[in-house]
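## tool: complex_structure
## caller: assistant
## args:
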Amino acid sequence: MARALALVDCDNFYVSCERVFDPGLRGRPVVVLSNNDGCIISRSDEAKALGIRMGAPLHEERRLVEAHDVRVFSSNYVLYGDMSWRVMQTLSEFAPEVEVYSIDEAFLGLECTGQREARALGEAVRGRLGRWTGLPVTVGVGATKTLAKIAARVARKSEKAEGVAVLSDARLTEAALARVAARDVWGIGPSRARVLKEAGVETALDLARADERWARCRLGVVGARIVLELRGTPCLPLDSCPRPRHTVTASRSFGRLVKSREELCEAVSYFVTKAAERLRRARLAACVLVVFAATDRFGAGEQYSATATLRLPVPSDITPELVAHARRGAEQIHREGLLYKKAGVTLLELVPAAPAQAGLFDGLDRPRAGRVAEAVDRINKRWGDDTVRYGARAADRPWRGKVEKRSPRYTTKWEELLKIEA
DNA sequence: TCTGGGGTCCTAGGACCC
DNA sequence: TCTGGGGTCCTAGGACCC
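## result:
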């Protein structure tokens, strides 16, 4: 193995974050819910063993949850985001090249070549992350990203539960591929899984041995790449410097249905304010703004969903300006008599936020507006979300969803610091 | 009663051009 | 009756990921 990749994947990340600060949760079934306390998006091993399904609406699993006294948490993204940052900081000490792939996963570029060396590194990563963050992780090493994913999967499922698997030669790689179902390979979703099933491709090993032209034809370029990656030919390069994002979206399902034009406008103003904060953090400005709203897709009433796309006269990251456009969009799509369940705003065609120039024609003092926005961001960061709000936004958010079981933001709010009583 | 949110990449089809 | 072909750009929607 001339060059290898390690995938470091946090085990049951959200649940594990909760357990760091409440050790009483260890060994017990625990789940974390999506926004609005809707679906189950993270499960402890004990919860999985009970048969609680990933992604299932909480109400469908209510019986199991109650019968086995499962601890249930609303998601606490502030906490998880901060814990993720700590994990990634720690990982950066192990390899010169680290690609942060998601909130709970990273790929590391390794120069080490052998089974023993790679395994030792994996164990060192696990040890240090355990001591420094309290989070359990699994490490998979392989010649490509897809093989590293396979390795991590095998490590997690192995009887010995070592937490590290290294596919350092053809024999080990084949043995691992034979143990993984084709539908569980990274990049195979329901659609490609159906194609594979019809073709009698059952394991990842079968897929690795599939004819390349057949794969290209039936699974697309993405599928063809998966086949090559399974054979050890890298097609997905390590990307250690994140490219600027292309879109920013802020949206939510409502806790109760929204009817009036004004209430929809207020909700959309709130979403675009949140999106603008993220835009400024990334030092970007948007050229296009999309507003969308939809009725309850599970409801019996009339189904409706609509979008309004607005091109901004000048790329903008200025909240009041974006709010004004978003309100216009909301007014366009609002239809009287309908009940809205969800709405949101997407900002796209993002460009680097230029040093603001005074607009000659748009009548907005951009440098000044930019300074105001920065000040608002700083105050809200220092004193808490929504300490300062823009006037166009209603203070109370009656349509806000449920967040009934959120744990304290232990690591980012002084007043929510963990208390230990002697 | 209750059913998530935020991304990326690819593809197909239409408009348009030479 | 015959009535190109290839390129680019854009957009909407599909597929997939965590």
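## assistant note: The mean pLDDT of chain A is 92. The longest strand of chain A covers residues 340-352. Handing back to user.
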